[in-house]
Design goal:
It is a single chain. By secondary structure, the chain is an alpha/beta fold. The chain has a single domain, classed as Alpha-Beta Complex (Maf protein). Helix content is about 35%, strand content about 25%. Strands 1, 2, 3, 4, 5, 6 and 7 form a seven-stranded mixed β-sheet that branches. Helix 3 (about 95-105) packs across helix 4 (about 140-145). The termini are close together. The mean pLDDT is about 95.
């Protein structure tokens, strides 16, 4: 058992295989494992976006905890809200192009939920950021979709890559926009008893 776990947990698990989330966790320097949560990502129709994203993050974290009951598990999920419509991960390049066209020249909200669960521990939070996209031509959209960055990303973009050039304005936590609100996560891990510099 690593000293950072303070004898409280068998291991630290990230209930995600997202490369962006793994990169953020790697930078934190804590020993952890990424585990696919393998859950149904459907939520009841009409569920408000902040509530939907919180439900999904908790569902992922609990699914992994059920298989690793002594662990501390980090779950996360992300959804984009545009004028009352929810945008999740596009299923293919055409869907990604449609999402980007709908975001062109507009401001939208991106909600990132965090849920940390372990034996006798549960904290869930939702981070919100505002994103304003430049007006995009059809050529802009086609060229960006061709990068493949849209894959696995709510809204069809990845803000830490070529997608940075899509945005006129970003208001909020960049790490959260990338998929994991790290300042919130650090605070929650401290609350859970982890030693971040062990």
């Amino acid at each position: 058992m690593h000293p950072s776990l303070a004898g409280l947990y068998s291991e630290l698990l990230l209930a995600s295989t997202s490369p962006a989330r793994r990169a953020l966790m790697d930078a934190l320097g804590l020993p952890y494992r990424a585990v696919s949560p393998e859950v149904d990502e459907e939520v009841p129709a009409g569920t408000a976006v902040p509530h939907a994203v919180a439900l999904l993050a908790e569902r992922k974290a609990r699914a992994v905890l059920a298989k690793h009951p002594g662990a501390l598990v980090i779950g996360a999920d992300q959804l984009v809200s545009l004028e009352g419509r929810t945008l999740g991960k596009p299923s293919d390049a055409l869907a990604a192009a449609k999402q980007l066209q709908s975001l062109s020249g507009k401001t939208h909200d991106i909600y990132t939920a965090l849920c940390v669960v372990g034996p006798a521990f549960l904290v869930g939070e939702v981070d919100a950021a505002r994103m304003t996209v430049w007006p995009l031509s059809a050529d802009d959209v086609g060229a960006y979709v061709a990068t493949g960055e849209w894959q696995g990303c709510a809204g069809g973009y990845r803000v830490e890559g070529r997608g940075q050039a899509l945005f006129q304005r970003i208001e909020g936590d960049r790490a959260a926009i990338q998929g994991l609100p790290m300042q919130r996560l650090v605070r929650v891990l401290r609350e859970a008893g982890l030693k971040l510099f062990a």
